[in-house]
Amino acid sequence: RSFCYDQESYAKTSLRTWVNVVVGKMTACDRKKKVVVVNGNTLVPYDHLVMCMGQQYQVPAPTEADIDMGTTNSELPNSPDRRYLKPQPKNLFTVNDEYDAAVALYWLENYFLKSNRKAIVYGCTLDAYCCVQTLIAMGIPGENIQLVEPPSIYQSTCFNDPKIDDAVKQALVSSGVQVHSGYILAHWNDGDDVSEITSASFTSSKTPLTLECGVFFAYYKRAVDTDAFKAINDACLVYDGKLVIDAAFHTNDVSVRGAGTITKYQRKYHAEQWSHANFNSKEVGVHLATEMLRLFDPTLDQQTAPPEESLNLIPIYRNPKIQGGILPGCYYYLHVAKPGLDVPLATQKEQPDYGKEYLTGSPGGKPDYFRIHINQYNNVETLTCLTKQAFPCENFICLYGLHERFLNNMVSRFNEKLIPDFYEFFRETWCLALYHDRFSDFRDEVRELLVTSPGVGMDSIEDKVREVVDEDVPMNDAQKKQLLEIYASSGSKRAVETRLLSFLSYNYYHLPMYAKPGMV
């Protein structure tokens, strides 16, 4: 899960009340007539088109290496990343959405469970590990599951945490799952007919491997769908490995926009490593909606071409990247992190501005593993949870970005050894206000109080702080004391306290555990 949207959130927004849903795949796009061709035979007209098909797991193409000759990964005759254009074997599954998952589960329950055949899971992504856990939970013996991990194309694993890597590997071994690392698919059925896969062969840096196969789950690599690529390319939209867009989502057609993992930024930004894939997709969608709302403003003239940019800068997105799932060993996993490039954890810790991390527990131990990374400004920048007990994920996600003082002086309490278990600490009643959906609005209101000038010709608290911070010399105790006196005497302290009490009073039906004036 990415915790952006799910079927429950669609239902809460009553999506089908507001949106006409056409189920199908775009196979062509006619920009002159402004129509999208769906499934090769249905025309859907548009005024403005947003392409956000994303990337999907594709059917992996065997390299056709000769395993009898002992071919290794450095001598492959064909690239493992090329497209597989033949019909898909009937017992091969690429699970990209809930419908694909339902189809795969139905097939497993009706055709595989009673057969005592082997299952192969090919990939080293989070989805691959979750797939292994699902197969085990369905009752398939661990001895009948083979996890084949291709050489990683990234600098770190999908968890980017050695302790979680070790815990998952240990859980796989304990359940009897055979793990083969560093292998690339070479053949199905020894190169014979592949209407149904009965065996799969792999090459590695050393000796090749051949495995019996009753079902094959492919989580090798996500890529742009072949039909989507053809439609984009035939429509003469600029495509450079991905659909090319500018900072405001425009393609080279003013009425066609792109968003999500199918896109990349124009080369003029000199940001080759950055794309929407590095950011929270829900936040990217909100920014896209904000851009498109201008199209429906009757007071603005309609654009005939994308606007000129004075500064070639990509937009900054601040919401966290989130991933979670149930891993082998029945571990509930959650990772909330600052959006950015894929950097190994060891490299991050070597940076002088990394901050500090705080841990309680260990994977599979008592208490369970909970890691919090606090940056140099004492804000929560990373959360990692691994536990065998279900926990309120949505609540813990709310902790991201908060200063540790919000968290009941967490750092000082931790240093005094008053927090043996973060799970228990963040389930206590004091922190329920942090999880309230209006708490972020309250923080914005307090921020506004401190930014706003208290009177004509008077500096705001923020201006006073900037005078101190903008100097190269660090703030000393005298300056800090002076700022606190200004904060108390200017009325800002009283205004913040009043706003806090009104927040608690207004939301008292949700937050009855807090005392308020008149109670004591």
UniProtKB/TrEMBL annotation:
Gene3D superfamilies: FAD/NAD(P)-binding domain. Residues 315-434 form the CFAP61 dimerisation domain. Coiled coil: none annotated. Pfam families: CFAP61_dimer. PANTHER family: CILIA- AND FLAGELLA-ASSOCIATED PROTEIN 61. This is CFAP61 dimerisation domain-containing protein. It comes from Magallana gigas (Pacific oyster).
